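Appendix B, example 12.
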Amino acid sequence: MLVDTHCHLDAAEFDGDRAAVADAAMQAGVGLIVVPAVDRANFGAVASVCRDYSGCRAAYGIHPMYVEHARETDLDALRATVLREHPLAIGEIGLDHFVEPRDEAQQDFFFSAQLQIARDAGLPVLLHVRRAIDPVLKQLRLRRVPGGIAHAFNGSRQQADEFIRLGFKLGFGGAMTFPRASRIRELAATLPLDAIVLETDAPDIPPEWKVSQAAGRRARNTPDQLPRFAQILADLRGISVQEVAEATTANATAVLPGLARSYPDFSQPTSIRSYS
């Protein structure tokens, strides 16, 4: 079994075929899907998806690209949702220093406040760290949380080692499938295997083959692609896809303890189709 540690299954891109997408993922061997919120307005949608589809587990948070219109009362709503829904994690939260225009002070405020919520709840966090890895690490040193995942990691080896030191796993997905993504592929090949988790970020960050098939149109990523991601990671590391599946599943349950509580029998053999 594989765990997709980051998939926005509640997104509008899946409104027409969400059940089929979820079923295809399960048929492909993706046994659990972590669905992070991005805004107070979609807390309900995330909760609904996770009630409707048995393999989905929720995280709640306010994404840095959504904080421009967020209010402090949204943090109260987040606290109330955490108490009511008992999510896996606080997320997706963090900093984004790529998008323009942006309000970095507003991003800092909401990130810091949500780290405190995670501390108070004893929950890990799902981090968005685009072009902002060092500022994110600075905040994490100030407000220690019970680990989490640096989603879509694209930093240096030194930055990766610092996340690992702070109790985090690093998420690898669609970007790793592009042969020209040399830095990401080098990290995937050489980081300790126990530091890596797999993700799709569906419907975003589609893999190379989806982009090629789209022929200039917007490509949609889906969670059933995760076994091919696992195969690429196995090829990069020179190990079997079975080893990758077992290790990344163990890593996901280690950093997101709620996964093991919601799906306790991880002792069963993991069977993943080989794409080599």
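The first helix runs from residue 18 to 27. The chain has one domain: 2-262.
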